[in-house]
Amino acid sequence: MEKFVAAPPRLGVSLPLSMGLLAYLLGLASRSARLDDPDTMLHVVIGRWVIAHRAVPHADFLTHSVPGTPWVAHEWLGGVVSTLFFDALGWHGLVAMASLGLGLAIAVLVRALLRWYTPAQSILIACAAWIEMTPHWLARPHILALPLLVLWLAWLVAARQENRAPPLAAALLMVLWVNLHGTFLVGIGFTGLFAVEAVLLTRGEAARLKAAKDWAVFTAASLVATLVTPNFIEAYLLPLRLLDMKFALSQLLEWKSIDFQHVSTFEIWLVLALGVVLLRGIRLPASRVLLMLLLLAMSLQHARNGDLIAFIAPLLAGPWAGAQLAPLAPRGDWLERMARPADLRGWAFAAGLVIAGEAAALAFPVAPTDRYAPAAAVRAVIAAGVEGPVLNDYNFGDYLMFQGIKTFVDGRADMFGDPFIKRYYEAVHGTSDELPALLAEYKIAWTLFPADSRAAALMDRMPGWHRLYADKIAAAHVRDGAK
User: Fold this and answer.
1) Where are the alpha helices (DSSP H) in 386-468?
2) Is residue 468 within a helix (H) or strand (E), and if so which, with residue range?
3) Less Cβ around it within 10 Å: N or C end of the chain?
C-alpha cells in the first residue's frame, strides 16, 4: 500500500507563522495600548543619544536634580531599536515593534511546543501565554527580548531531553540579549539549573562526567558572552542593586506583588493551569517541579514575572505533560498539516501581510496615552516664558525628557536610588513635610503633577506659588515671579 503523505498547508503557511501573524495584526489593531507606558519615550531618547554619540552613556545627562550621577543604560540596544522604528514610522513604528516582538515570541513558542504537544494543545497554551502577557505588551525593550527568552528555554529543554548540552554557538545569543534587556539573567539562571539537573540525573560515572563537562563549558561560554557589553559586570550588579531598593519596589507598579483583590490575567492563567493539572493529574520529575515552584515564587513576588511562568512553564513540562494531555486534544488533518514548517510561499505571504498591515495602520493616527503626555500643560508653561528647574510627577518625567526638558525624576529609579525616591514620594504625597524643602533645595521654578493628585492639591496651598494651568491630565504651578 502506498504511504500517505500529508499535503502541505494552504498558502504555504504554518501554525507558528499563522499565530505570529495573528498576534502582529491584533497588536496593530490595538495600537494605543502598545504605547500605554511612559518609558517608551525614555528608550527613544536613550537610543537617539547612543546613535548620535556612537557610545553608551555611563552618567546622567537628562536631569537637573542628579546630573552626572553614574548610570547603567542596561537596555541601550533596545533604545537604539526603538529609535530606528520611531524615526522610520513615528509612533506607528513603535506599535509595529511591539506587535512584531510578541508575534515573533508566539511563533517561536508554538514551534517549540509542537515538539511535545499536539497542534491543538500548542494553540491553547500559546493563547494562554499571550493573554497573560497582554498587560505588559508594550513598546519597550522587554518585548524585543521575549523571543530570545522563549528560544533559549526551548534550546535548554530540547538539549536535556536529548542528554546533551546545547551547541556552543547558541551562547552567542547572549551577546544580543544582554544588551537588549535584563531578562538575560533568567536565561543564565536556568542554564545553571539545567546543568545541575543534567549532572544529578545522568546515570553512569562516565556519562555524568561528560554531562558535567559539556554543560560547564556551555554555561561558561554563555557567561562570557554576557560580558560583551559596554556595561561589563554592571549588567549583573544593577539587578542586585535594584532588588535592594525596597521602597522603590513597593511603589513601582510592575515590581509590586500580585494583587489578588482584583482579577488579573495572571490569576486567570494560574487558575486554568491548576485546573488542567488537577484534572489530568500531570506528574513531573522532582527537578522540574522545583523549577515550576521557583517560577511561581518569582511570579507571586513581582507582577512582571507572571510573563515568565506563562511562557516558560509549558516548555519545562512539555516532555511529560504533552503525553499526559494527548487524550484530551482534538486532532485533524488540517492541524497536522499546519504543524509542518512554512515554505517560501508562506513566508512571502507573511511578509506581504506585515507590509499591508502596517500600511493600513498608518491611515489611523496614534500617539502615547494622554495620562503620560501632559502636552497642553507643558505648552502653557513655555508660552508663559517660565524657565528654570521643574519638580515633576514620576510618570511625567519621560515625556519631559522627550521634549528636551531636564527632569527632576523619571523612569530610571535604579539611578536615583532608594533614599532619593523615598524622599520624593513622601514629599509629593504629603506623608512628610519635605515638599517645601525640595522646592527650595533644587530651586524649583515650576511643578507638573496630575490634576487630581495630592501633589497638585499641596501646590494649590503652597505660599508663594500659583496655578498657571490645569486640565484633566495635569496641573502646572509656577513660583510667583518665576521667569
Assistant:
1) 397-402, 413-416, 418-428, 435-441, 454-460
2) strand 465-470
3) N
Q: Facing residues of 465 across strands? A: 479
- What's the pLDDT at 337? 80
Strand order in the sheet with 465-470: 390-392, 446-450, 474-479, 465-470
β-strands 390-392, 446-450: how paired? parallel
Low-confidence ranges of the chain (pLDDT < 50): 1-6
What distance in Å separates the CA atoms of residue 123 and residue 332, rounded to the nearest whole number? 14
Alpha-carbon distances of 183 from 7, 150, 407, rounded to whole Å:
40, 11, 28
Q: Which amino acid is at 355?
A: I
Residue 328 C-alpha from the chain's centroid = 33
Residue 2: per-residue pLDDT? 39
Q: Rounded to an integer, what distance in angstroms lies between the CA atom of residue 261 and that of residue 379?
A: 39
Contact 378, 403 (CB under 8 A): yes
| Helices and strands of the chain, counted as H and E runs | 23, 4
Exposure b/e, 85-114, CB count within 10 A at least 16 = b? bbeebebbbbbbbbbbbbbbbbbbbbbbbb
* 229 within 8 A of 235, measured Cβ to Cβ: yes
Report the C-alpha gap between 202 and 341 in whole angstroms. Answer: 33
Which of these, 178, 156, 92, 99, lies nearest to 133 by C-alpha position?
99
Query: For residue 461, what is the DSSP state?
Result: T
**DSSP assignments along 73-140, one per residue:** -TTHHHHHHHHHHHHHHTHHHHHHHHHHHHHHHHHHHHHHHTTTS-HHHHHHHHHHHHHHHGGG--SS
User: What are the residue ranges of helices labelled H in 162-204?
Assistant: 173-180, 184-201
DSSP letters of 260-301?
TTS--HHHHHHHHHHHHHHHHT----HHHHHHHHHHHHHHHH
Query: Which pLDDT score is estimated for 326?
Result: 74
Distance CA 207, CA 213 (A): 10
> Amino acid letter at 298?
M
Residue the block writes with cell 530610571: 412
Sequence-distant (≥ 6) Cβ neighbours of residue 363 within 8 angstroms: none
C-alpha cell at 343: 515554505
* Tally of CB atoms within 10 A around 290: 13
First to last CA, the chain: 91
